[in-house]
Amino acid sequence: MTFLEYAPAPESKAVLNLKDSYGLFIDGEFVDGSGSSFTTISPADESRIAEIASANDEDIDRAVAAARRAYDRTWSRMSGRDRGKYLFRIARLVQERARELAVAESLDNGKPIKESRDVDVPLVASWFFYYAGWADKLDYAGLGANPRALGVAGQVIPWNFPLLMLAWKLAPALAAGNTVVLKPAETTPLTALIFAEILQQADLPAGVVNIVTGAGSTGAALVRHPDVDKVAFTGSTGVGRDIARAVAGTNKKLTLELGGKAANIVFDDAPVDQAIEGIVNGIFFNQGHVCCAGSRLLVQESIHDEVIDRLKSRLSTLRLGDPLDKNTDIGAINSAAQLARIRELSDIGEAEGAERWTAECAIPEKGFWFAPTIFTGVEASHRIARDEVFGPVLSVLTFRTPAEAIAKANNTPYGLSAGIWSDKGSRILAVADRLRAGVVWANTFNRFDPSSPFGGYKESGYGREGGRQGLTAYLKGAAA
Ligand code: NAD
Fold first, then answer.
1. Whose C-alpha in 173, 233, 339, 409 is 20 to 30 A from the C-alpha of 192?
2. Does ligand 1 have an atom closer than 6 angstroms to the CB of 291?
3. Probe target for ligand 1 pocket from 56, 236, 247, with the most ligand atoms within 8 Å of CB
4. pTM to 2 decimals?
5. How far is CA 98 from CA 95, 182, 266, 272, 418, in A?
6. Average pLDDT of the chain?
7. Out of 11, 100, 105, 291, which one is annotated catalytic?
8. How far apart are CA 169 and CA 154, in angstroms?
């Protein structure tokens, strides 16, 4: 097969107005951090982007104190209607600065610009718009007789959707009347710091949102701070466990959004062309750095060979390379550490006897890259069928009957998401009902909407983000 050549179509970095170094954002201002600063780099070519401050215990104290003051003096006294105005303003500023945010996100994270431009940033704006609308309606939403904010929220987020995870955390917390100290991931702090500039532009009262950068120890200090009323975390199951232990026995409320190993189930009556696109989107979107990724393909045995052949030919058309090129489908792996983990688990997959296939593509010399990879002949006991790879690696298993598909889909310590591909609505509903997964997509995958609650079962965590349910995590005595 021959393919059209694409001319380079790089998005310009001229829209960026980056500083050489960034401080911590505390009490409405950028201030120096007391820890040793670190460099954030572009994972596509390992070039330096900026120097980033690191917060130690003392800085966390300052940030939490600022959030407490803002809660007591300003935010908790403000009407929901006025809080909503700030959130609307933030949403509009995100839209105004969308291009800049998308370029910064792709630069710092490595994700293709067409994803940050068309998915991440528009969703960020929609999350703020959505929760802005809730701020003055808390009393009328069945959230209890007198819904009240919890106080100060400490939020820790990962690197896979840096700005979107910030929006998932901040928007409901602020709409419900809480103030926040948020810690972005150490490999992707850039857009959170640009977002801090947006908060200044929006004239958000000082201290309502504080952003503290740093490594895991900064996050650990934040979640352990005695004056934090609520902890929200998205990231790995291991760190989630550590946080659950730290919070146990305190009065802090906790929500955890952890890993996943989702089954994407394709029945033999599925619209195959659509399913192929859904499988690709399910696991190769965002280089597979997606907690709800469809990383286990369960395909009905009778169509296995056809699906795999078509999948391989589709994957051979994906373009891997410069995240800022508008034609790029697969960007860079976020960090050297994550690349090492993907390589290790893939090597284990091969050693355990699964058959490895990798799309042929030129790998850039610098930076962190991993070509789209499929494992066939995977057994339920294989590590690649059980562990979250968090990379562009798909494990393929087969099934014969719906009951077998359900049993295999549920055979995982996780329970975040799943997908079903079938022409029959009744089959989709019957299977979805028996899947132990927080989100089940039907004939689509990786769709997100602010009005739709998202969260997991088992080792995928607890609590829901998004929708009306997402507010309950930030209100006293509110039941979902
Ligand atoms: P991680 O859980 O270590 O990091 C997530 C965030 O938690 C970061 O901001 C980090 O600085 C912070 N953190 C680390 N240790 C902490 C601690 N003890 N207390 C408080 N905060 C702490 O995730 P990672 O190391 O970046 O990735 C490792 C694995 O986690 C990945 O391979 C993937 O499987 C999984 N992961 C899942 C998600 C998700 O959305 N569910 C996101 C990122 C990573």
1. 339
2. yes
3. 236
4. 0.97
5. 5, 21, 36, 35, 30
6. 96
7. 291
8. 10
In Å, how far are 235, 244, 399, 437 from 264, measured between CA atoms?
22, 29, 12, 12
SS3 227: coil
Residue 294 in contact with ligand 1 by CB distance below 6 A: no
CB count within 10 Å of CB 360 equals 7
Distance in angstroms (rounded) separating the CA atoms of residues 190 and 309: 40
Residue 73: predicted pLDDT: 98
Q: What is the arrangement of strands in the sheet containing 393-399, beginning at the earlier edge strand?
A: 355-358, 373-376, 393-399, 296-300, 263-266, 417-421, 439-442
197 CB contacts (<8 Å, ≥6 apart)?
none
- 291 carries an active-site annotation: yes
Which of 228, 120, 121, 118 shows the shortest CA–CA distance to 182? Answer: 228
Ligand 1 atom nearest residue 257's Cα: 41
In ligand 1, the atom with minimum distance to the C-alpha of 239 is 2
Indicate whether residue 225 lines ligand 1 (CB < 6 A).
no
> Where does residue 351 rank: exposed (0-12), middle (13-18), buried (19+ CB within 10 A)?
exposed
How far does residue 104's CA lie from ligand 1's centre (Å)?
21
pLDDT at 478: 63
Residue nearest atom 13 in ligand 1 by C-alpha distance: 216
Q: Is the CB of 390 under 6 A from ligand 1?
A: yes
Average of per-residue pLDDT across 140-149:
89
- The whole-number pLDDT of residue 142 equals 87
Q: Which two tokens stand for residue 273?
A: 């062309």
Tell me, what's the pLDDT at 379?
Answer: 96
pLDDT tens digits for 410-425? Answer: 999 999 999 999 999 9
Residue of 11, 105, 257, 388 with catalytic role: 257
